[in-house]
Amino acid sequence: MLLKIQNEVNSMSGLINDILLLSRIESMDVEVDMMPMKMKSLVDEVLESYEVEILEYDITIHKDFDDMIYIGNHQQIYTLLNNVIGNAIKYNKEHGHVYINIEEQGQAMKVVVRDTGIGIPLADQARVFERFYRVDKGRSKARGGTGLGLAIVKHTISLYKGTIRLNSELDKGTTIEMTLPQQTLKQA
Predict the structure, then answer these.
(1) Of the candidates 186, 136, 174, 158, the residue with the CA atom closest to the CA atom of residue 22
(2) What are the pLDDT digits (tens) for 90-130?
């Protein structure tokens, strides 16, 4: 019984934190510090947090990028990558693959995350960036999450004046492509 209570408390805490984060991003009245980040280190940090799932489902991770420097808010970019890469891992098939590609594109960074997972039905693709929308309620509950991850991603991309594209096919996988313009450092 205590384990059930602890799981529900953790779930509720995650939901509250996601709602607060989304609210902060939407209000844009909070001044955020922009700083240079090494993208390879940031991706490695995200992957480390999913180490258990990667091993449990035997997911092979393919990273293809130079260690570029991106100027942005560390917490926001970490959360963005965590949500997109996390979904590619959580909604993959056993023995699946996740491909992460990051490259400089002029004064922007292009991030492509592709998986060989379960995919998203065409009818649901337009709605996955809505708050609390889940494609497969049963599987989503089993794998955790609040239904806010991709809404947070969309709002963060919007805040950075970037773009996001989703391409998915049932039982073949999903590709999410994001382009984020470099931000500027504040001059003291």
Answers:
(1) 158
(2) 999 999 999 999 999 889 999 999 999 998 888 777 767 66
Q: How far apart are CA 119 and CA 166, in angstroms?
A: 11
Closest CA to 183 of 60, 65, 43, 74: 74
CA distance linking residue 1 with residue 98, whole number of Å: 36
Cβ neighbourhood burial of 5 (10 Å; 0-12, 13-18, 19+) = exposed
Residues ≥6 apart with Cβ < 8 Å to 25: 76, 152, 155, 156, 159
Residue with token string 């293809």: 64
**DSSP states of 154-182:** HHHHHHTT-EEEEEEETTTEEEEEEEEEP
Q: What is the pLDDT of residue 140?
A: 46
User: What pTM does this model have?
Assistant: 0.80
